[in-house]
Design brief:
Layout lengths: L12 E6 L2 E6 L38 E2 L6 E2 L6 E3 L10 E3 L1 H23 L1 E7 L5 E8 L5 E5 L3 E5 L3 E9 L9 E10 L6 E8 L7 H23 L1
Helix pairs in contact: 1-2
Length: 235
């Protein structure tokens, strides 16, 4: 994976036990992943006499369970699934309501596959701003998921939370709705201390030594990462 850059010196982690389960979290909040979500506050027991999904009344037999993702209160039938929830750093699968479990299951593919693709990196021609010159660079996500690292003759480290827009460029579209392939992206980000946006254009290399399929997979993973990032900001 190449050597670690200055921005990703090993971030210490600690094991934390919360009412929801065991979590492996960064020691410093500033080191947390931009894709992470905070644990939700649980709806207090006294405020939920009935299941918030099926309206079954809670009693000695019908017990209350809280969804670890939304914090709402459900009966066992409506909150029986235990699903991995890496966005909240849970070590083991945790109890979630049916709606949240579906969302978490969809995110699993990102954490199991696409995050690794982003960390392994791909090669692109990178053009900065309005320059007419481009540079061949290896682009990858840092191991702590907080920076986009670009290495060529130049070196850039872009903080993920400073990225404002990502537009994936495709080719192969036909009026009849044919298959498209990701061939590049335009990324805009803020340099810390500046309010102005800096733009970078990434184009998949035509060089035979560079794998275009790998570049397309990397771009698809970046698209998914951006969607998760915007969801995190909205919550």
């Amino acid at each position: 994976r190449g050597k670690m850059s200055g921005c990703e010196a090993r971030d210490a982690k600690k094991l934390v036990r919360s009412p929801s389960g065991l979590r492996m979290v960064p020691e410093h909040r500033s080191a947390r992943s931009p894709f992470g979500l905070d644990e939700p506050p649980w709806v207090p027991d006294k405020e939920c006499p009935r299941c918030m999904q099926c309206d079954t009344k809670f009693d000695f037999i019908t017990r209350k369970h809280h969804c670890r993702r939304c914090g709402k209160c459900f009966c066992d039938k409506c909150c029986s699934k235990k699903v991995p929830l890496p966005r909240m750093c849970f070590v083991d699968p945790v109890r979630q309501c049916a709606e949240c479990a579906l969302i978490s299951q969809k995110e699993t593919e990102f954490y199991d596959k696409q995050l690794k693709v982003l960390m392994n990196g791909a090669t692109f021609f990178v053009t900065l701003g309005t320059s007419d010159k481009s540079e061949l660079m290896v682009c990858r996500l840092s191991n702590n998921q907080r920076y986009l690292i670009l290495d060529g003759d130049s070196h850039y480290e872009i903080e993920i939370i400073q990225i404002s827009t990502v537009q994936i460029l495709t080719e192969g579209f036909t009026p009849g709705g044919g298959n498209t392939r990701a061939v590049g992206m335009i990324l805009q980000y803020k340099v810390p201390g500046s309010e102005e946006l800096t733009q970078m254009k990434f184009t998949a290399s035509e060089d035979f030594s560079c794998n275009k399929k790998l570049s397309a997979s990397w771009l698809a993973a970046m698209h998914k990462a951006t969607k998760l990032l915007y969801e995190s900001r909205d919550q």
